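Project outcomes to date are best conveyed with an example. Our students and postdoctoral researchers have been running inverse folding experiments weekly, and each run begins with a structure described purely in tokens. The record below, which covers 80 residues, was selected by the lab manager from last quarter's runs and is presented without edits.
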């Protein structure tokens, strides 16, 4: 049995959610950039704690990115 669609049904709510997700994505991206800058721009040589934090932030950012893409597709499909 397929899972129900988690995206809101109306466009206004979708756009609001989209905006919130973009803000969250940008915050996560900034945190990742800050962490990388503290480590000379790369993950090699990061402490274990920093690397775990980096991976957690990157995974969450990827999840948010996927949600953004889903919403974009829904909004664009509704325009057709």
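After processing, the design step wrote out the following sequence:
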């Amino acid at each position: 049995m397929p899972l129900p669609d988690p995206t809101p049904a109306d466009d206004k709510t979708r756009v609001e959610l989209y905006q919130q997700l973009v803000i969250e994505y940008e915050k996560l991206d900034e945190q990742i950039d800050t962490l990388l800058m503290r480590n000379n721009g790369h993950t090699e040589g990061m402490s274990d704690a920093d690397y775990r934090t980096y991976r957690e932030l990157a995974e969450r950012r990827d999840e948010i990115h996927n949600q953004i893409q889903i919403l974009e597709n829904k909004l664009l499909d509704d325009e057709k």
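The helical segments are 11-38, 48-79. The chain has two helices and no strands. The training component of this project remains on track.
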